[in-house]
Amino acid sequence: MAARTSPTERQKRLGAELRIMRTSAGVSAETAAGLLGVDRGKISNIEAGARPISPERLRILAHGCDCTDNGYIDALIEMAQPSSRGWWETYRGSLPQGLIDIAELEAHALRMRAAYAIHMPGLLQTTDHALALFRVVIPQLPEREIALRLAHRVERQGVLDGSSPPSYTAIVHEAALRMQFGGRAVARDQLEYLLKRSEHPGIRVRVIPFVAGAFPGSGQTVLYAEAAAPQLDTVQIDNSHGPLFVYSQAQLAKYRAHLDWMERIALSPGDSRDFIRSIAQQL
Prior knowledge:
6 strands, elongated, single chain, Endonuclease, Chain A, 6-stranded mixed beta sheet, 12 helices, 434 Repressor (Amino-terminal Domain), 2 domains, alpha/beta
């Protein structure tokens, strides 16, 4: 199989997991190459996500590394399978790689929890709200890219309405609810849309009011995406330079605790709807 010139975040994650499996078992790259019948350089490329690995070779490698966690192995094999072309691929080369990786992460998640201190959840934004955000990006985006980002955002939102959508919990701070991006009318429509989507059986919106006080990582936008095996969970963090993906076990535990804390101080889904409704009525 030919090497890739620009592996996706998902492909890089698979390679990283294979390296962890190998090194944790004390298996050298040379030994792994012998098991798979390839040269050592290909092992480096596989572990960098630059070269695919067949499901058959992945099973051989797992056996050689004494990995007996069948759920984990099966999840890795699913990642290694040649996948059908996802809708996000139509944007590759036209939008930043990180945006494509977020869409792919969401598409494969079984459950998602996300926390927002300033912004509305991207999966629950109206087009007018999203457009207001895209128009204040620095450096300024050309109109064509704004249109592409908007179309990409709308398609991303479809993940919550598919045939087997992931469960989705959005923890939103009161500050985000009171932001008037795009003006009062846009803000009111956004809150009404948030209320409507919160009635969906797979979507929970929970509000942290100002009076709840401090919480870990205040101000940070965090998405925790659960995978088929817990070792393959991923945290995606927004920053000014683009999305950051983290998945060390220590970091996963940290952000699970972070989100658990926020849920403990958040209003219930029903009280959250009442809270959102009261703010919308003020606009």
